[in-house]
Structures are given as C-alpha cells and as structure tokens.
Amino acid sequence: MNITQCYAPNNDYNEDDKDQFYDRLQSVIEKCPTKDLTILMGDFNAKVGTDNTGYEDIMGRHGLEERNENGERFANLCAFNKLVIGGTIFPHKRTHKTTWTSQDHTTQNQIDHICINKKFRRTMEDVRTNRGADIASDHHLLVAKMKLELKKHWTTGRTTSQKLNTTVLQDTDKLNKFKIVLSNRFQMNITQCYAPNNDYNEDDKDQFYDRLQSVIEKCPTKDLTILMGDFNAKVGTDNTGYEDIMGRHGLEERNENGERFANLCAFNKLVIGGTIFPHKRTHKTTWTSQDHTTQNQIDHICINKKFRRTMEDVRTNRGADIASDHHLLVAKMKLELKKHWTTGRTTSQKLNTTVLQDTDKLNKFKIVLSNRFQ
C-alpha cells in the first residue's frame, strides 16, 4: 500500500511553481507499483467541479461548483495515472462535500481530495467531511471509508502449498482519518492531524488534545494504530520517563507542545518513530524556516507499542515535496500474517474421514497431502 499526502500550490502561485509541484508528484506516483493499492490525498487547492465530461473514468458528478485551473491540472494528473477522485463519486449534502470554509464564512469549496487507483476503486465505500471534528483550521476533516479483504487463493492440480497474497501489505489539515479493513480480525487505524502551534492559547490546545484522545480511544487495542501529522511538537533527545515510547534520536530540547504530545503518546502507548532510528540531522528535520536559519523536528509518525516491530525506519525524504516549508516524512513498515499455533493441554484431534468418501474431495486431499510432504 502506497499513501502519498501533499499540499499543492494555490492559484496565486506562478506557473513554474505549479509545474514543478506536479512534476515532482508525478515522479512519486510513478514509483508506486501498479499492482499495489495507491492512495493520494491532501489539500490540492483544486476545484474539480461537477462536469466529468472527458473524465468519466476517474470522477463522478458529485463535486462542487465549477472546475478551476488547479482543478484542471489535478484532474489531468488523476486521469493520466488512473486515480479515482473519491469526493466526486458519492452523493452527499453540500455541507458534507465542503472541505474548506473562508474565515468570514462566505465562501465554501471542495479543494481537499482523497483518491485511489482505479484497480482498487471498489474498496472505497464512502468519502465525506466530518464537520466539527477539527479545530484551529479553516479546513474540515475529510474521511474515506475503505474495506480490504485478504482472500486465500486456492489452486488446482499438482502445485506447491497454497499461500496468502500479502503483497498488498507492503507499506510506503486537520485530523484526516480513514480506516483500512484488512480482514474481520485485523484492522489498521490511521489518524492524521494538524496540531495548534505554540502561539495558540491553552484552551485551543486542550480542546485539540481532548478531541484527539477521543479519536484514539475509539481504536481497538488489538488493532494496528498509526498516528501522524504536523504536531508542532519538539520532543527532544531526553527520553527520561518516556523510555517506553521514544528513543534518544530526536532533535533539540522538548518544548511545551512536545510535552503535551509525549504525554499523549505515553498514555496511549504510542511509540514516536522519528526518535528511535539513528539518522543524520538532515534526515530528522521535518521543517525548515523560510530564511533557512531554523530547523525542527515537529512532524511525527507514531505506532502503537504492540506493533512496534513492524516499523523498520522513519526518516525525511528531502526534495520529495515543494511549495511547503515541511519535508516529506516516510515510515517504512513490514506486516506479516502468521499462523497462531495453540499450546497447552488440549483435547485429542481426530480426522474426519467421512468426507473422503466423496471421490472429488478424496482426490483434492491427495493433491494437498502430496504438496505438503514434497
């Protein structure tokens, strides 16, 4: 599964900046194998509109307003890469399509999008905004509901033992949350958010972390939970008191936002990935000031402690994003499906031989048995 999130230049940027952004984004998408699930999401500052003439394969008629120039660029990118624009294919009220509202509440637009490659279109069950789920932003929470099923592929004839197809498990503002259901027993919860910075008052920060805590509490402890985003939080290098959820490979000293964030992670047993892998400073820095004099590690990717070993690396990929003072933060993860063997005193197991009276089942059993002991 490949997830790409980005922030696109708005209409005020010059054409060269826009061209450079879409060229970079195209190069990122091209690195995603076509057989894998690919999700593209973010604030594209793009109104794609309701008219899908010429774009019937990648969008529906349930957008908003008319397509603008950014919307034209975005639609062409999606058409070229066969990415379906989720917010246009599900009918909803206008309030559930709007992803951005101006500060004076006079203008509303649909400029944030979640897209999925056409091959996996049927896994997307809904896309809509969840009003009131986010604070300190003029954007609204955009939620995609998805369902993936792992099926066992049975083969016939004389073959090697059957295996589960696990290739889909290869893993590469705003409180964006969506769930990916892998099976009835395994679920991954991904929560992405934008936290208030240090200039916000304490009430705003308290409200944000209370909301975030309520979201995390809804994630079952048995499931894989990932928390990521721009938390405006410097957690530092000193992990005293936080040894269970962070390492010593952060940057600088912990600030007040970092204290709040570390406490949240400790309470929910979420490991802060960027602090446990040793890297050069340039690969830890997630934000650089416009005058290039200040660098911080304020974006984070966290995973619940139960699944800590599935996270193999976290680092920034410099130059992979433009039109932003943030750098692309990448987590490398590896999930494996394992068979759970039971232990202890159990009742004796008996083979049900009555089914072998059926000739077809008997032949199938012989094939499986032969493959097992080759």
TrEMBL record:
InterPro entries according to UniProt: Endo/exonu/phosph_ase_sf, Endo/exonuclease/phosphatase, Swc5/CFDP1/2
A Pfam family the protein falls into: Exo_endo_phos_2
GO molecular function annotations of the record: catalytic activity
Name of protein: Uncharacterized protein
Native species: Schistosoma margrebowiei
